[in-house]
From TrEMBL:
EC number(s) on file: 3.5.2.7
Catalytic activity: 4-imidazolone-5-propanoate + H2O = N-formimidoyl-L-glutamate
One GO BP annotation of this record: L-histidine catabolic process to glutamate and formamide
NCBIfam families, A to Z: hutI
Gene: hutI
Protein name according to UniProt: Imidazolonepropionase
Protein family: Belongs to the metallo-dependent hydrolases superfamily. HutI family.
SUPFAM superfamilies named among the record's database cross-references: Composite domain of metallo-dependent hydrolases, Metallo-dependent hydrolases
Species of the source: Rhizobium rhizogenes (Agrobacterium rhizogenes)
Length: 405
């Protein structure tokens, strides 16, 4: 956390401490620790958390508080619930302009092709994003980050992918890094130049990867702008063979990978991601049972994005039961983007995951905390209430966790 701040409005805060060694005891709470690997939320009734500096030093019952809590600042939570702060592990929230007009066109009956012919789709976001300076993009993107953070997020992943040339892709990543300096949030950046093919490279995917994706990846790595590398594996984007070239380079320079896979068709993207021990495979509506098992074997998280499913009015549900049977970790994210998921609420997304995909309350809460942290490679740092983890927690004035969903 760049800007430490104290939990003042108990109703609305992610709590982080004011100084490095200060000890604060948060008492009289229902804790959903979300610790442990599978079922349940790790609930502790009559719970307390002791925070020293920015770390959790104790999680347990109020009755068993350790000696270090004596004489420390005490906060009575009056029976409120405490969960790990929420984590949005898949967003495209840095972009210029908006695509509300396309939404109107679609409501009036226009097809995707007609919208694309009128200059819409990803191309319109690419044009708008390329038009604005870094500072202008920060001003446009900050309200989206603020809206997400109102729901007590500690961590947000942000992808590039609306630049589609080296300079513009790196500009997006610098904007994402810049947002982190303006708010008390952890931003994880993902390089997604393999998102779409710019018009100047139409039909020449291989050239685009060689001329733009790989050089941008090398430069972004040198400039410290990239935490992970992503691609869009789909008939309308890149093939598994093309994605492999990007993943080979990422792996060679020591960056983890993840993949937009099996959203509209089954190209075997999840299996490809698993073969690179990817952090996550995302979307997955068209995933088959074998793919679910491959993800589980590799420890790759299945990130479900019900917001895009909803906006596109898709019919094919992700194979939630196959993921459960295989033991694949399941995370949930907003997919915040201007076209297919124009929304900035992780709580609403949790609701959609329950109502549209049939996830349980526990799966939704774990999916937006522990499993989202796992999908970002940050489980050692955040996502559960455990001793030694960062003190990223959220306090909720609710009677039971189902109210969050
Ligand atoms: Zn996405």
């Amino acid at each position: 956390m760049k800007d430490k701040y104290r939990a003042t409005g108990i109703e609305m805060s992610v709590a982080t401490p004011a100084s490095d060694e200060e000890i604060v005891v948060w008492r009289n709470a229902h804790l959903a620790t979300v610790a442990g690997d599978r079922d349940g939320l790790g609930v502790v009734e009559g719970g307390a958390i002791v925070v020293r500096g920015d770390r959790i030093a104790y999680v347990g019952t109020d009755a068993n508080l350790p000696a270090l809590a004596r004489g420390a600042v005490q906060v009575d939570l009056e029976g409120r619930w405490v969960t790990p702060a929420l984590i949005d592990c898949h967003t495209h929230l840095v972009f210029g302009g908006d695509r509300a007009h396309e939404f109107e066109m679609r409501l009036a009956g226009a097809s995707c092709e007609e919208i694309a012919l009128a200059g819409g789709g990803i191309a319109s976001s690419v044009n708008a994003t390329n038009k604005f300076s870094e500072d202008e993009l920060v001003l446009q993107d900050l309200p989206r980050l603020d809206a997400l953070m109102e729901e007590r997020l500690s961590t947000v992943e942000i992808k590039s992918g609306y630049g589609l040339n080296v300079e513009a892709e790196l500009k997006m990543l610098r904007v994402a890094r810049g947002l982190e300096t303006l708010r008390p949030v952890r931003v994880v950046t993902t390089y997604l130049a393999a998102h779409a093919i710019p018009s100047s490279y139409r039909g020449r995917n291989g050239d685009y990867i060689k001329d733009v994706v790989i050089p941008g990846l090398e430069r972004g790595r040198r400039e410290g702008l990239i935490d992970a590398v992503d691609g869009f594996c789909e008939n309308i984007a890149f093939s598994p063979a093309e994605i492999s070239k990007v993943f080979d380079k990422a792996t060679a320079i020591g960056l983890p990978v993840k993949l937009h896979a099996e959203q509209l068709s089954d190209l075997g993207g999840a299996k490809l991601a698993a073969s690179y021990r990817a952090l996550s495979a995302d979307h997955l509506e068209c995933l088959d049972e074998e793919g679910a098992q491959a993800l589980a074997m590799a420890g790759t998280v299945a990130v479900l994005l019900p917001g895009a499913f909803y906006t596109l009015r898709e019919k094919q549900l992700p194979p939630v039961q196959a993921l459960r049977n295989a033991g694949t970790p399941i995370a949930i994210a907003t997919d915040c983007n201007p076209g297919t998921s124009p929304r900035t609420s992780l709580l609403l997304t949790m609701n959609m995951a329950a109502t549209l995909f049939g996830l349980t309350v526990d799966e939704c809460v774990a999916g937006a905390t522990r499993e989202a942290a796992r999908a970002l490679g940050l489980l050692h740092e955040t996502g559960t209430l455990e001793v030694g983890r960062s003190a990223d927690f959220a306090i909720w004035n609710i009677g039971r966790p189902a109210e969050l969903v």
